[in-house]
Amino acid sequence: MPTPTKGRRLGGSPAHERMLLANLATSLFTHGRITTTAAKAKRLRPLAERLITKAKYAHLANEEYAKSTPESERKDKYSETGLKTSPGALHNRREITKVIRDKNVVHRLLAEIGPFFIGRDGGYTRIVKTLPRKGDNAKMAIIELVNEKTVTSEAEKARGTKFAKDETPAVVDTEVDAKTDTAETEVPAEVEAEAKVDETDEAAEETSEKKDES
Fold this sequence. Notes:
Elements: H1 14-31, E1 33-37, H2 38-68, H3 71-74, H4 87-97, H5 103-116, E2 125-129, E3 140-145, H6 151-159, H7 174-185, H8 189-213
Antiparallel strand pairs: 1-3, 2-3
């Protein structure tokens, strides 16, 4: 039996390993998340992300084909949608069907999962470690599809602009500034009263000094 090129073989033979990973990928795309051993999750992750990338390329190829080709040339009476599929999308679909044999899962991957990750350059799945399995104490993990958009896309959506420099500067409220200026220039009434008392005391001292001199 040939030795595996990377890591331990999961099944008894290479064909068994391929079918095992294909079944795990089918379950992942069907349910969105699955619980399996940590070793299987680590081996499944690169396969699942490659399939999602192919689904992305198929979606982008269809969009480019629709823009560059007139609708009259894309008509096909034998197609379910009535329109031809781009050669690039057809190639990626065939590459996916080599691994995923369920047509419903392939359709969901091409129509929903692939377009959802258009703005993300990788990192479509997440692995979370859980408690060991009862019985053999095997390390378990949850592998799931990432449902959140990227941080930059969410920030741009919340901001409403593509770049921070496109934002309009905040208008300073002149009324607030005027209030602060007046508050700084105005002298409190207590301070004025103290100043008047000091002036009267100085005047009384001056008059007393003049009387003494006389």
